[in-house]
């Protein structure tokens, strides 16, 4: 965006009340006619501007579209997303954040794209990220945690997403261990946590969040339709991507700060509240055996707890879980 326009939006956003044309023209070093022309352009782009004689201008509402300005306006976070980058298209927001991290960008930097052409999923899978249909976002964190605690950030993120989705609609999301979000047994969201660490110190974490938001069934590749869905398909409502991102960032910051202060104990029950098939029977297979067990919860290190028919509780770090009805296998 042209820098004058960006500065103009910043000046108007900082102001509680109106700001005079005179003050704007002085701050931006442009004529008052040029200020007026910029205002008309903003209105054409969907900004609602109030112009009051002898008082000046005020932004009443931002357009409902995703941009650095619209995302930051009214975000109300203390540290998350103050450094925010929005792109129309990237290969993967994960890669962009890795680069920014190496350049020393701060904790809480956020990268969002309308479209990813090489979106990455877990286990080297692709992540389908069509233009304008979902939330494709990566967050840079520089937590003072030990590397073994990093999986807790993923579990925490899954609870944040579940809470935001549940608060905004009548659908009930479930977190399928370790961190897929399901609605009606189909996946709507996935989390990819990547970390740069030494043995006893995390340098940085890149937390990738992908949410299928406004896809119709036809937008979902045919081979995935039996196991993937979108918030729109499940809720029958159109979602504001911009407002949903803002809600996620606010809720994430709150939950993250509590976690850093008080530890994982407050996250664990929330994860379990949304946990998929917690309290239910599933079949578990490892290389050596296959057995029936009841899922009972998670451990702070991210392990899944499963109780076998003899009452023994086992901690699972990697196992194939046959989720049964609908929920495809992990
Ligand atoms: C999964 O369930 O396999 C994880 C999917 C993570 C996708 C997100 S979209 C934003 C970020 N950028 C990527 O390339 N991947 C993550």
Automatic annotation (TrEMBL):
<dbReference type="InterPro" id="IPR011991">
    <property type="entry name" value="ArsR-like_HTH"/>
</dbReference>
<feature type="binding site">
    <location>
        <position position="187"/>
    </location>
    <ligand>
        <name>biotin</name>
    </ligand>
</feature>
<dbReference type="InterPro" id="IPR004408">
    <property type="entry name" value="Biotin_CoA_COase_ligase"/>
</dbReference>
<feature type="DNA-binding region" description="H-T-H motif">
    <location>
        <begin position="21"/>
        <end position="40"/>
    </location>
</feature>
<keyword id="KW-0092">Biotin</keyword>
<dbReference type="Pfam" id="PF03099">
    <property type="entry name" value="BPL_LplA_LipB"/>
</dbReference>
<dbReference type="InterPro" id="IPR045864">
    <property type="entry name" value="aa-tRNA-synth_II/BPL/LPL"/>
</dbReference>
<protein>
    <recommendedName>
        <fullName>Bifunctional ligase/repressor BirA</fullName>
        <ecNumber>6.3.4.15</ecNumber>
    </recommendedName>
</protein>
<keyword id="KW-0238">DNA-binding</keyword>
<dbReference type="InterPro" id="IPR036390">
    <property type="entry name" value="WH_DNA-bd_sf"/>
</dbReference>
<dbReference type="InterPro" id="IPR013196">
    <property type="entry name" value="HTH_11"/>
</dbReference>
<comment type="function">
    <text>Acts both as a biotin--[acetyl-CoA-carboxylase] ligase and a repressor.</text>
</comment>
<dbReference type="GO" id="GO:0004077">
    <property type="term" value="F:biotin--[biotin carboxyl-carrier protein] ligase activity"/>
</dbReference>
<comment type="similarity">
    <text>Belongs to the biotin--protein ligase family.</text>
</comment>
<keyword id="KW-0678">Repressor</keyword>
<dbReference type="InterPro" id="IPR036388">
    <property type="entry name" value="WH-like_DNA-bd_sf"/>
</dbReference>
<keyword id="KW-0547">Nucleotide-binding</keyword>
<dbReference type="InterPro" id="IPR004143">
    <property type="entry name" value="BPL_LPL_catalytic"/>
</dbReference>
<keyword id="KW-0805">Transcription regulation</keyword>
<dbReference type="Pfam" id="PF08279">
    <property type="entry name" value="HTH_11"/>
</dbReference>
<dbReference type="InterPro" id="IPR030855">
    <property type="entry name" value="Bifunct_BirA"/>
</dbReference>
<keyword id="KW-0804">Transcription</keyword>
<keyword id="KW-0067">ATP-binding</keyword>
<feature type="binding site">
    <location>
        <position position="116"/>
    </location>
    <ligand>
        <name>biotin</name>
    </ligand>
</feature>
<feature type="domain" description="BPL/LPL catalytic">
    <location>
        <begin position="85"/>
        <end position="260"/>
    </location>
</feature>
<keyword id="KW-0436">Ligase</keyword>
